[in-house]
What we know:
The complex is a heterodimer of chains A (378) and B (334).
Chain A: H1 7-23, H2 33-49, H3 68-81, H4 89-102, H5 105-117, E1 122-125, E2 141-145, E3 148-156, E4 166-172, E5 183-189, E6 195-200, E7 209-220, E8 224-225, H6 231-241, H7 246-268, H8 274-304, H9 314-333, H10 343-351, H11 361-372
Parallel strand pairs in A: 1-4
Antiparallel strand pairs in A: 2-3, 3-7, 4-5, 5-8, 6-7
Helix pairs in contact in A: 1-3, 3-7, 4-5, 4-6, 7-8, 7-9, 8-9, 9-10
Chain B: H1 7-23, H2 26-35, H3 40-48, H4 67-80, H5 86-99, H6 102-114, E1 119-123, E2 128-129, E3 136-140, E4 147-151, E5 157-160, E6 169-172, E7 180-181, H7 186-218, E8 220-221, E9 224-225, H8 230-259, H9 264-290, H10 301-313, H11 318-333
Parallel strand pairs in B: 1-3
Antiparallel strand pairs in B: 2-6, 3-4, 4-7, 5-6, 8-9
Helix pairs in contact in B: 1-4, 4-7, 5-6, 5-7, 7-8, 7-9, 7-10, 8-9, 9-10, 9-11
Bound molecules: flavin-adenine dinucleotide.
Amino acid sequence: MDLTFSTEELEFRDELRGWLEANLPGEEPRGDEDAIYAFRTEWQRTLYDSGWAAVHWPQEYGGRDATLMQSAIFFEEMGRIGAPLPANVLGLLLAGPTIMAWGTDEQKDRYLTPILSAEEIWCQGFSEPEAGSDLAAVKTRAVRDGDDWVVTGQKVWTSGAQYSKWCMLVARTDPDAAKHKGLSYFLMDMEQEEVQVRPLVQITGEAEFNELFIEEARIPHANMLGEEGNGWIVALTTLMNERSGLGFFLQVRLRQMLDRLIAEAVANGKIDDPVISQSLGDMLERTETLRLTAYRGLSTIMKYGQPGPEGSLTKWLWSETNQMMTQLAVDIVGPQALHSANPWSYELLRARGNSIEGGTTEILKNIIAERVLGLPRK
Amino acid sequence: MQFDFTEDQHEIKRTAKDLLAQRSTSEKVRTAAESGSYEQSLWAELAELGWPGVAISEDHSGGGLGIIELATLLEEGGYALANSPLLASAACAIAIQEAGSDAQKKEWLPKLASGQVTGSFGIAGQTFPDLVDAAITVSVSPDGSSATLIDVSAAECNAVETIDPTRRYGEFSEADQSGEGMPGDGAAALDISTVIVSAELVGICQRALDMTVEYVKDRKQFGRPVGSFQAVQHRCAQMLLNTEAARSVTYYAAWSADADRSLLPEASALAKSSASKAGVEVTGSAIQAHGGIGFTWEADVHWFYKRAQMDAAWLGGTKTHRERLTRIAAAQAA
Lengths: 378, 334
Ligand SMILES: Cc1cc2nc3c(=O)[nH]c(=O)nc-3n(C[C@H](O)[C@H](O)[C@H](O)COP(=O)(O)OP(=O)(O)OC[C@H]3O[C@@H](n4cnc5c(N)ncnc54)[C@H](O)[C@@H]3O)c2cc1C
């Protein structure tokens, strides 16, 4: 067991730190989504130009062939220095790895580089009004017509669709097949009249996500990813990538938030309140547990090629902790934490989404019980 | 970075698990608990294998390995609920190694390492595990700033009956009366004992979880295994989360004791706050998931609950250690 970084890992980190110090942009704009998006696009271009956009990607597609550990270091450093997220998060974390795993050579050549350079932004069109946790229940229909598929249906909660060129779309190609077997995975061009994007305002007042109304949109057969009828398996690849790497970024941000709270409690004397002190101790325990469990999970994957039981736990623990911590902020900062101008108010509201997006906590617990502990399904 | 045991460490852990599965069966644990005495042959065998002195330096006839190796043995000891003075005696030896004078080390470490005598360790005025039969004890102040070596035969101490009959506990009649001062680092001694009892708690949690998963797969109500009910499944998922959380921080703390002492105070507080919570919650959950059977003397889950309660309280529980974590972080922030 060695919990220090190796020389190579330190070299990687120091190179990155040096680059970040020279290239980190200023403060991200607040409130205005278009301005935020433009800012993040610019930032991703900067990353791309220096080869830092996707360190975990193979070199042939513009990555650095980084190890999982280096990738974790990358995200930790980004979090630590307060770097913005790149504009094309879903492209980099979800679409790219899914295309690498399932795509033909033509598809890889066509899509991967523009993902990296933020020239083409991606969104994830999985959820539907009647298919959320029960994702395999999607109803959006795709019917073959010559070299095309004609797609009709509705998607919902599609984050970033308003900026996206492409959509990872799961649609039903065989209504007669069993639920999980009748699906196919498409790369859908968002720039067509037949796809209408309508913003959905969320509890923070922003509109990160959208509804998609798809009315006889045409997708060339060449844009199917994986085989016809194999969409569920391809979608699982996307879902399994949902948290990789980004978890390290989020965990560092969480710890920074906690450090701010502790400093505040020291400054206003609440640190001496035994109830506050207990709650902060709980948060310290949780944030360290997250960091260490994430590294332990990574070591397991690197050594054994597959995740251990710890891998399924961190998203659950992170979302719960973020919610508890933003709630604790109201006690420590006081009621001003709920004033709109106070950044904590945003954090408190945004945290509610954490236990829903990317699979609800209840679904994660089901997966842990059934797949990790091997308990019987109903 | 490699947050996993080395091959050797895995091997030690596996061997310990296999051995204890044979030597410390549920029947043996029960017999020892009900008779209030340990099986001497188990201790003799563990001593023969060098377990009590695994982390004692070779200069003092120990195994010369680290706290990580000791922690893996204690984890497996907790898993099997092995009835032996291993925790107390190893804690005593580590304390003498950390805090003792050269003469104290020379006199006691070889005997403790070989298992020829046993020792105990605790916080002055509190409960000491395996005290009465020990030859020697280290008693520390609550913050570890002072440590005293007490010759048990010369001191007045009594056995105390606790909720946990799988281990024998004692206390001194008058705290801190006799004994020799120890010149070294009592705080490190206390921190390391805190880490190794956390490791025992991790083992207890893992066993309680394994027993529960096995039981709920098997037990049927309403025509199906109770483990197919979501409330039961989510309880089990929570047990896994608590166990793995405690495991992450405990391994980290054991590593810090071996590799980076500057991290040890915070890491040991992390380990114990997490492991105490996990120990109490996971074993309590195990009783609940077993239903009425879980509440009987007949079933074995209660032994784990009882040991977990004692371990969780020993050297400070979750509240004590969370408070400590906050104090450390506040000092860094100030
Ligand atoms: C901020 C945010 C961004 C998102 N971005 C995207 C995106 O970009 N693309 C995309 O496709 N989707 C996205 N989603 C959708 C997200 O994946 C779904 O909201 C989520 O999977 C839950 O589905 P649902 O909303 O239909 O809730 P439901 O599935 O209807 O769940 C309602 C409640 O029932 C519980 N429940 C459901 N089934 C079970 C069960 N079997 N056992 C126990 N409890 C159960 C759930 O846990 C939940 O508490 C986003 C969501 C949020 C909040």
